[in-house]
Specification:
Elements lengths: L17 H18 L6 H11 L3 E5 L7 H12 L4 E6 L8 H6 L2 E7 L12 E5 L7 H13 L4 E5 L5 H6 L1 H10 L8 H9 L2 H16 L3 H7 L7 E8 L8 E8 H5 L2
Helix pairs in contact: 2-3, 7-9
Length: 263
Amino acid sequence: MMKRLHLFEVMDQSWCPPVVRDAMTDFLRFTIDMNNPYETIIPQLSNALKQCQTTQIIDLCAGAGGPWFRLKPLLEESLGQRTDVILTDMYPHRDAIIDEVETAGLRVLPVSVDARHMPFKLTGFRTLFAGLHHFRPTDAQAIIRDAVEQRQGIGVFEATQRRPLVMLLMIVPALMMLFVTPFIRPFRWSRLVLTYLVPLLPLCTLFDGVVSCFRTYTPAELQDMVADFQADYEWEIGEIRLPGGPIPVTYLIGYPKVAADTP
């Protein structure tokens, strides 16, 4: 395992043009829909929602919706009831996805939301897919602390690792973008221009993918982050390998012990 380096990602920067950020999050959602790497965490996520006695989910750093288009029906099947998924982000996606999100039974909060300081009115189980690595250790712990202080459950899931082989595999999505871009919805001419005429999107995708690997936290580092919250919360931290997949999903799930002990 390589040392963690908090290098910068293009998509994180305030100067990143919305047209670039939105195109990258659209592609990320497209690839997640194709591969569905987070399907493997359904049992853990379903159990956590039951322990928290809630069916409302607040997704942090949601981008264009991440895995929820495919994950929501699978989770509802496991729970045996409907869920309410609210997508939040520091840089909310443009309105172009609103109709698609609503068709999938999701909701978008159109205002900027800081995952480190969530509004008290947003109650529900918090999820963070491929997002914790965007934060430095103190800020990552602040996300967890905020959930603990507001007595909300939280689940963190990452599908990257700080391993040379995983970093090498980041070339695959960058190359795949050249083949699938015309099929990504909603259709945008700007996406075609920035992929084929000026190949900014494949280059940024490759760069951010490698940097994401350098930034990803290990289970041991996640365990250190929750060390101060052991008394009040139940924590489950580990890795789950997707059948046939080369990269396991690293996860952290926590919920109040009071909720866990309630009959």
